[in-house]
Amino acid sequence: MTHRYLPQTEEDTRQMLDTIGVSSVEELFSDIPKAVRTPDHLPLKRALKEGELVKTFRQFAAKNADSKTYTSFLGAGVYDHYIPSVVDSVISRSEFYTAYTPYQPEISQGELQAIFEFQTMICELTGMDVANSSMYDGPTALAEAAMLAAGQTKRRTLLVSDAVHPQAKEVITTYAKGQYIDVKMIPLTEDGTTDLEALEGLMSDDTAAVIVQYPNFFGRIEPMDRLQKLLENEKALFIASSNPLALGCLTPPGAFGCDIVAGDAQVFGIPQSFGGPHCGYFAVKSKFMRKVPGRLVGQTVDEQGRRGFVLTLQAREQHIRRDKATSNICSNQALNALAASVAMSALGKDGVVELAKQNAQKAYYAKRALLKAGVRVITEQPTFHEFVIELNRPVSEVNDALFEKGIIGGYDLGNVRSEWSHRMLVAVTEQRTKNEIHEFVEQVVAIDGN
Question: Model pTM?
Answer without folding.
Answer: 0.88
